[in-house]
Amino acid sequence: QVQLSESGGGSVQAGGSLKLSCIISGSTYLACEWGWYRATPGSGREMVSTISRDDWGNRKYADSVKGRFTISQNLPNHILYLEMNNLKIEDAAVYYCAAKRCGRPDYNFWGQGTQVTVST
């Protein structure tokens, strides 16, 4: 199994920045991709950004965060980051770190989530 633990959430004013971290442990070799999702009350989880777990680090971003958010990883230490700049009210959500098992289409392992609040 893969365990994920997020940190770095909090409250920020619109236009501000936050950096989320996710420590990934356990059988990390099972995962070929990891990323960040977010959810708000009444909505399902949406993909924010993903990155392949290799030296190429192929990245994907939701259109709504392109140019503002940056995903990165520290492979030796199994840490995933999400740097969020120019935060908007609509970015407020619970952010989840997740990992996708190699050969599987969906994300299989999830963290507990960290709250991001954006105010005017």
Explain briefly what this protein structure is.
By secondary structure, this protein is mainly β. The protein contains no helices and 11 strands.
* Tally of DSSP β-strands: 11
Shape: globular
Q: How confident is the prediction overall: mean pLDDT?
A: 95
H/E series? EEEEEEEEEEE
Strand content: over 45%
Largest beta-sheet characterization: 7 strands, mixed
Kindly provide the radius of gyration, computed on alpha-carbon positions and rounded to a whole number of angstroms: 14 Å
Structural class: mainly beta
Helix content: under 10%
* Unreliable stretches: none
- Span between N and C termini? 40 Å
Number of helices: 0
What does this structure look like?
The chain is mainly beta and about 120 residues long. The protein contains no helices and eleven strands. It has strands spanning about 1-5, 10-15, 20-25, 30-40, 45-50, 60, 70-75, 80-85, 95-100, 105-110, 115-120. The relative contact order is 0.32. The mean pLDDT is about 95.
What is the topological layout?
Layout: E1 2-7, E2 10-13, E3 18-26, E4 31-39, E5 46-52, E6 59-61, E7 69-74, E8 79-84, E9 93-101, E10 107-110, E11 114-119
Parallel strand pairs: 2-11
Antiparallel strand pairs: 1-3, 3-8, 4-5, 4-9, 5-6, 7-8, 9-10, 9-11
List keywords for this structure.
120 residues, mainly beta, four-stranded antiparallel sheet
